[in-house]
Amino acid sequence: MRLQKKHAPYSLYKKQTKPGLMWYARFWDTEAKKYSTVRSTGIMVEGKRERWREADDAAKVILEELRKSPKSIEPLPSSDEKIKAFSPFIQYLLDFWSPESEYIKYKRDVKKKPLCASYIQMNHDDVLRHVATYPDFQNISLEQLNRKLLKQWQIWMAGKKVTHIKKDGTSIEGKPLSGRRINSVLQGMRIAVRWAVDNETLLSDPFRKLDEVTEETKEKGILTLEELNKLIALPVNDPYSRLAVLLAARCGMRRGEIRGLKWGDIQDDIITIQHNYVNSDGLKSPKIKGGITVKNSSPVPLPSDVQAVLIMVKQFSNFTEDNNFVFQGARKKEEDIDKEKNISAEYFRYAFAKELKSLGINEETQKTRNLTFHGLRHTFVSLGRLAGLNSFEIQTLARHKSERMMEQYSHGKQAIDFIDMKKRLEKGIESNEKKTEEKIQSERKSKYVIC
Predict the structure, then answer these.
(1) Residues 129 and 188 in one domain
(2) Does one domain contain both 425 and 409?
């Protein structure tokens, strides 16, 4: 007798969509005896690990929904980390962090501050990975949530370790979750629950007087003035990677703003920042800290050393019209050679590492100093203040919402040359001593003449 083949309840695969490459799932139908149901997980294929774990979690959610339908869907295999059914509390969070929820529509249509699709997806994924997997949340309603449960969840999260999924599907445990990561998940829950309180669905706020997890922050590393000057003076081997670094360090541009930069945005030694490119949303208006959309474009001075590299990039590019992106992505197919393609978000990390290597800064030193591409904006602010620009000027150029935020980007201990300062201080003291001695001698002579 031939044995019946055992099928997995679902399988994941990648599909090219308009927003980009996305994870899809096929679900096994026991009656039809084939994978007849297909659903999008809503998870983009991004990063080194391609977000497979998030896609797998999303597929489980869809599977649970299909199991409630009349069709026969095989149940999930039993596992400690897998949930048999979502509690009303968890389902509320999943519905809340969906693209068409009331809250998302309210932010978009009433407050005129639409939330980024990737931010919505991140919170949805966090619910699946870090909230739905907590045992004490799996059988409660929204009304049963209290401060004690939230504190117990914080303790559980503090002991949780990051799980890395290998290409072969096996997993390895890494370091514990950081305080910042735990607080990010907590904030996603807090926003959802307080929305229920504001709408009088919930009578009391369990998040009231709840402390956050202590965060151990590491100061962002910056390039010193000497290192930046050395980089500018070095021969340009790759104009694109050099330009990416200089636009961030010399003009204070964010990665999304550099990705969205068009040739028409550059006129008369001024870059007008009026675009921001994000994978989940495509080309959009730039934003300043706090999520406020910049309605009017933001001008930034274009230093001559950056302009020189821009000219080199333009000579290499096949797309130089005003509406073309300055940075173009690689094309794998020959038939796409004449099609415009935006640069990958991952490119900037590799470009920065390449330019640091030319300065003699190896990978180990990069980690020790906490040098990242976003840290180049910190370089811009710190060296700008060292150059004598006042707080108002720096805040305007960096496009920060507040002076307090701008202060977080200032790193005096890294920017200041303490050896040079020591010499200047000693020179100042010597000069002051000389002036004091001259004054004493002058007073003595004056006194002698009077007598």
Answers:
(1) yes
(2) no
Question: How many domains is the chain partitioned into structurally?
Answer: 3
Any domain includes 204: no
pLDDT tens per residue across all 451 residues of the chain: 444 556 788 888 888 776 667 888 888 877 777 777 888 887 878 776 778 887 888 888 788 777 765 444 444 443 343 444 578 999 999 999 998 899 999 999 999 888 888 889 889 989 988 999 899 998 899 999 999 999 999 999 999 887 665 555 566 767 888 898 999 999 999 999 999 999 988 889 999 999 999 987 788 888 999 999 999 999 999 999 999 999 999 999 999 999 999 999 999 889 998 888 887 677 777 755 444 445 556 888 999 999 999 999 999 888 889 999 999 887 665 555 567 778 888 899 999 999 999 999 999 999 999 999 999 999 998 888 888 888 888 888 888 888 777 777 777 777 676 666 667 677 766 666 666 666 666 766 665 554 4
Residues 244 and 345 in one domain: yes
Rounded Cα distance between 451 and 446, Å, is: 9
SS3 of residue 164 by DSSP: strand
Q: Is residue 28 located within the same domain as residue 162?
A: yes
Same domain flag for 309 and 183: no
Based on the fold, state whether residues 41 and 182 are members of the same structural domain. Answer: yes
Residue 91 in 3-state DSSP? Answer: helix
Which whole-number Å values give the CA distances from 96 to 58, 188, 195, 414, in the listed order? 15, 10, 9, 43
Whether 236 and 185 map to the same domain: the answer is no
Q: Is the pTM of this model over 0.70?
A: no
State the CATH number of the domain containing residue 350. Answer: 1.10.443.10
Continuous segment of H or E residues that includes residue 147 = helix 147-158
Strands (E), 255-310: 266-267, 270-273, 276-278, 282-284, 287-288, 292-293, 298-301
Same domain, 296 and 398: yes
Identify the domain containing residue 118 by its residue range. 10-198
